[in-house]
Amino acid sequence: MVSHIKKFETEDDVAVALAKYICHLSAKFIAMHGSFSVVLSGGTLIDTMRKLTESPYVDSIHWSKWLIFFLDERVVPLDDSDSNYKLAYDGFLKKVPIPECNIYPIKEGLSPEETADEYEHRLKHLVANKTLRTSHATGFAKFDLMLVGMGPEGHVASLFCWHFQRFEKQKWVTFITDSPKPPPQRITFTFPLINSASEIAMVVTGEDAADAVKVALGKHANDHYPLPVQKVSPEGTLTWFLDNKAAPWNLGALCVIL
Ligand SMILES: O=C(O)[C@H](O)[C@@H](O)[C@H](O)[C@H](O)COP(=O)(O)O
């Protein structure tokens, strides 16, 4: 894995850098294979993507080539205020011309287990018909870019510290019915699927995240029971986008093990 840490003074600086980075990857992957598969988290990430919907980025991206997936999703109707799809739609998707058929929300009205199985089945179908690439190393789908947020105690997607889903090795998508972050019923990509990605951006802003960022980038990275965020390790490149609140120390002073 190749990794980079990009730290900026403010959250607004992170938003600008993130838009440039996504724009660059969009052009690169579309030139390479004709599409750009992007996986979105919920949380503050969607707002931090806001510059993409503005000039000059919005006019320079081939939106019709984008494919949108959800790293984790709350098992609620798509118009519920807890839905990550609704969050992404209101904050980003409705502002850019991505064809509706290229957006892959969960299927409504199923149990958490059925929702996860159905999403995994759809991903496998998209791999089989070559809409998505496969990782030759793992056999899992290989997304071009995953945009990942982190909770204050180091969770990513809906993979939480003291919950077994983080250890899943076979499934592509799993479910949780007692998420410590509400709402309790969710589905989530598993680590083997996450880590098969070409590019992962860890987008973390705000002081609540500082302790977990310090652990993730610091000398405790090989602890016996690592935080979920410490298991993010893509086949391609991991790029951290941090603001000064999330990483208030001199990064050079940390013993970075990446
Ligand atoms: O559905 C969710 O809750 C998310 O996908 C979750 O994994 C989120 O990305 C982190 O909790 C960070 O959230 P914030 O950016 O709001 O801190």
Automatic annotation (TrEMBL):
GO MF annotations in UniProt: 6-phosphogluconolactonase activity
Keywords: Hydrolase
Keyword hit for Hydrolase: yes
Enzyme Commission code(s) on record: 3.1.1.31
Pfam families in UniProt: Glucosamine_iso
Pathway in which this enzyme or protein is active: Carbohydrate degradation; pentose phosphate pathway; D-ribulose 5-phosphate from D-glucose 6-phosphate (oxidative stage): step 2/3
Signal peptide annotation: none
Domain Glucosamine/galactosamine-6-phosphate isomerase, first and last residues per copy: 10-240
GO biological process terms on file: carbohydrate metabolic process; pentose-phosphate shunt
Catalytic activity: 6-phospho-D-glucono-1,5-lactone + H2O = 6-phospho-D-gluconate + H(+)
InterPro entries: 6-phosphogluconolactonase_DevB, 6PGL, Glc/Gal-6P_isomerase, NagB/RpiA_transferase-like
Enzyme class: hydrolase
Family designation: Belongs to the glucosamine/galactosamine-6-phosphate isomerase family. 6-phosphogluconolactonase subfamily.
Descriptive protein name: Probable 6-phosphogluconolactonase
